[in-house]
Amino acid sequence: MLTIGILGCGRIGQVHAASLTQISGARVGAVADPVAAAAQALSDKTGAPVMTGEALIDSLKIDAVVIGTPTDAHYDLIQKAAKAGKAIFCEKPVDMSVKRIRACQSVVEQAGISFFTAFNRRFDPNFAAVQSRVAAGEIGNVELLTILSRDPSPPPLSYIRSSGGIFRDMMIHDLDLSRFLLGEDPVLVMATGSCLVDPEIGAAGDVDTAAVMLQTASGKICQISNSRRATYGYDQRIEVHGEKGMLRADNMLESSVEVATASGFRRAPAQHFFLERYADAYRLEMVHFIDAVKAGVQPSPNVEDGLKAQILADAAARALETGQPQHV
Ligand SMILES: NC(=O)c1ccc[n+]([C@@H]2O[C@H](COP(=O)([O-])OP(=O)(O)OC[C@H]3O[C@@H](n4cnc5c(N)ncnc54)[C@H](O)[C@@H]3O)[C@@H](O)[C@H]2O)c1
């Protein structure tokens, strides 16, 4: 039985704790959050005791930790948990700074612990099936990848201000998916962005509409389209085009019921947001983490993948600022 401590009992901490209650061979051993009510609420749901973060990390009863705190708290917790020899499941992004992620990588390597970067979209059953069919050669050599990722509505401005910007907060998922689906690292990054959804987002120094083009050393091209608005639900689609054909995964809708009348065909909106759309992915990424820790192997994606996605996000932000393509 793997005993896991939850650091951060907010939105995502609750998702991971709920996954653990459904997975055999692992359990929530303790929860920690400086907001006492948040910790108590998750303790009530899981039956696990509330501890301080330090006590949880130092507890000999805890084998692994889930870091689900705001991103600016990840670094310190990674350092402490790695030094205490705990396996780490860390929410994305690992940190906002490439330099600090490299420091995390070295402490993780020195400690010889398992480290998982929670890029959950790799575990979406449809996206994972596209990746494995591409890797099996079903459409031959990949030439073009298109990733569409649009939120139903913008987050609160307070979130935008501390988010690190659309590339590091939101597109980071798509940048990781590009590496996963292309099977190669992009070496060239071009970006454009606008503020079309809410002028306050622009006033906070960010954009709400962005497009990025990536190219790998062998010439494969990826286009990513992001928006903080989609009137029809959480828009999450991928399409891989190759020499022998095309593989794609469409949106998951709220229902599969369709009505057809003389005025046309009508279907339900896309599932509302990430909690619904990626419910399976959140559970499956946790299963992968637990299996890897038990087997004593590195989970995937790991700290190196977190670093590479951050390098791409930084390059996209620089490309937007300078108007110049960036070589990475
Ligand atoms: N993979 C995904 O789909 C996904 C979705 C949402 C959020 N996230 C990531 O998860 C992280 C948390 O986001 P959220 O939306 O759950 O935030 P949140 O604000 O809802 O929850 C964070 C919680 O962490 C607590 N906290 C702060 N400092 C702490 C510390 N030192 N120790 C323990 N707890 C602490 C806060 O009090 C809060 O309750 C972020 O890094 C975010 O980027 C990932």
Could you give a quick summary of the protein structure above?
The chain contains 13 helices and 14 strands.
Q: Bound compounds, please? A: nicotinamide-adenine-dinucleotide
Strand order of the largest sheet: 11-10-6-9-8-7-14
DSSP, total strands? 14
Number of helices: 13
- The average pLDDT score comes to 97
SSE diagram, text form:
Layout: E1 2-7, H1 11-22, E2 26-32, H2 36-46, H3 53-58, E3 64-67, H4 74-83, E4 87-91, H5 98-111, E5 115-118, H6 125-135, E6 142-150, H7 157-162, H8 166-169, H9 171-182, E7 186-194, H10 199-203, E8 209-216, E9 221-227, E10 235-242, E11 245-249, E12 258-261, E13 264-267, H11 274-277, H12 279-295, H13 303-322, E14 326-327
Parallel strand pairs: 1-2, 1-3, 3-4, 4-5, 6-9
Antiparallel strand pairs: 6-10, 7-8, 7-14, 8-9, 10-11, 12-13
Helix pairs in contact: 1-12, 4-5, 5-13, 9-13
Would you mind describing this structure in some detail?
- The chain is of the alpha/beta class.
- Helix content is 40%, strand content 25%.
- The protein is built from 13 helices and 14 strands.
- The protein has helices spanning 11-22, 36-46, 53-58, 74-83, 98-111, 125-135, 157-162, 166-169, 171-182, 199-203, 274-277, 279-295, 303-322, and strands at 2-7, 26-32, 64-67, 87-91, 115-118, 142-150, 186-194, 209-216, 221-227, 235-242, 245-249, 258-261, 264-267, 326-327.
- Strands 11-10-6-9-8-7-14 form a 7-stranded mixed beta sheet. The chain has a 5-stranded parallel beta sheet with strand order 2-1-3-4-5, sandwiched between helices. Strands 12-13 form a two-stranded antiparallel ribbon.
- Helix 4 (74-83) packs parallel to helix 5, helix 5 (98-111) packs antiparallel against helix 13 (303-322) and helix 9 (171-182) packs across helix 13.
- Residues 7-13, 32-35, 38, 53, 68-71, 73, 91-92, 118, 120, 274 line the site of nicotinamide-adenine-dinucleotide (NAD).
